[in-house]
Amino acid sequence: MSENSFPHLSNGNKKTALVEGDNKYSYGEVNNRIDRFATGLLNGKDDLREERIAFFIPASLDYVTTMHGIWRAGGIAVPLNVASAVAELDHYLSSASVTRMVANGDYQESLRGLCAELNIELVSVDDVLADDIRELPEIIPDRRAMMLFTSGTTNKPKGVVSTHKTINAQITTLIDAWSWSEEDVIPLFLPVHHIHGIINILSCGLWAGATVHLYSKFDIPKITSEIIDGTYNVFMAVPTIYVKLIQYFDTIDKEQVDKICDGFRPMRLNISGSAACPVKLFNQWKELTGQILLERYGMTEIGMGISNPYDAERRAGHVGQPLPGVEAQLFDEDDNLITEENTPGEIRIKGDNVFLEYWDNEKATIESFKDGWFCTGDVAVLDDGYYRIMGRSSIDIIKSGGYKLSALEIEGVLLTHPSVSEVAVIGVEDETWGESVLAFIGLNDGAELKYDDLKKWCDGKMSSYKIPKDIKIIDALPRNAMGKVTKPDLKKLV
């Protein structure tokens, strides 16, 4: 077995690996299809030698076939966001020097012009599948395996390159930390161009021998129907998904809500990640379902680095402690190690889970490491042994009157106001304070809110210098494909 093979993807395993609509596929069937695809990719070669192969495929059997087929043939897998406009893909394909693109049906038709312009061969999964399986290359752990693109909040997205060793570490750490087993059944509806969907759900599920239900999007009626039936015992989502579920409960009768909540209640694990989980949401979910959300911290470059514990206290508003095999420390702006609690510092990470490089960008790679530590750009404090994220140093930390204010903490307080449905806080230039607090607020249907009323409400809930100097009511906060509010876009509205 080569180093990149998953233990349970063997031809003799008849257990269901994937469920897609009405179709079920065993581990043996999936494994055979991957080998046929890898053979077709090689087309007589002995090794792809890290050829970059992109794919524009939603969560499906074809996605799994393509991802693992590229890995087994010795290529670098470049999964792309199927929600992206085709024009957005030019940067990814060009910067990665992609040579082949895999897509099916309408997705393929939409890409035909771009691939022709960039001289990229466009193929479908069926085009590649070989009739017979040939010998595949042995893949050593240090080989490059995958390239994911950063969200690009401040600059153009960079290609984050992980090796097989990196991916192995990211998966096996979570298998142990979150007690994955072959008895687990989980839905996958998150984007599969992102670490959350690829590693935390799909890869952990397959590595553990679990069953993964694949959805091309978050289909609330279908997924909640399965939850009522007791199909799933693990559920992972971004905070926005939990909010959408709670909003959905307001549109259906109480008996149906109770059935859905009763379906969540016996699950062994509910996880929230990829964005900060407001304490208000944490408490709402616990009240509705009895589930204590496990919040964790990760990013494209490191997979998961910090997590609340599976078998101990999961603390609202905190992301927990470093995962096994991961080192985490806080550093100040002068690169001094912070050892005191409640002192803000940048999170820096070491471990086999950390990525290899930014593709074709040596300068950015070098600048992202200091003394062997990967500099995340996220600011946190240690609070009684648990990390609490204050936000991105470039976006969420507001320097006002000599204080470092956390936009995330201010948002958490404002979200508890009964009229507020969503909020985003940013810092804006201020001649007196350096920066002052500006809040963009979305209100519940039919609600009204004035600044003076909000200021009065805030008294006693937060220090006066944290109360927003200005408020803008906005219909919907701009979000990216992962449901995160895009604060750079908000700054453009100021």
Structural class: alpha/beta
**CATH fold group of the largest domain:** Rossmann fold
Mean pLDDT: 91
Count up the domains. Answer: 3
Regarding quaternary structure, how should these chains be classified?
single chain
Strand tally is 27
Portion of residues in beta strands equals: 25-35%
- Under CATH at level 1, the class of the largest domain stands as Alpha Beta
Q: What coarse outline follows from CA principal-axis ratios?
A: globular
Q: Output the number of helix runs.
A: 15
Could you tell me the radius of gyration in angstroms? Answer: 23 Å
Regions with little confidence, pLDDT below 50 for 5+ residues:
none
- Tell me about the biggest sheet? 6 strands, antiparallel
Distance between the termini: 56 Å
Percent helix: 25-40%
Spell out the CATH superfamily of the largest domain: ANL, N-terminal domain
CATH architecture of the largest domain: 3-Layer(aba) Sandwich
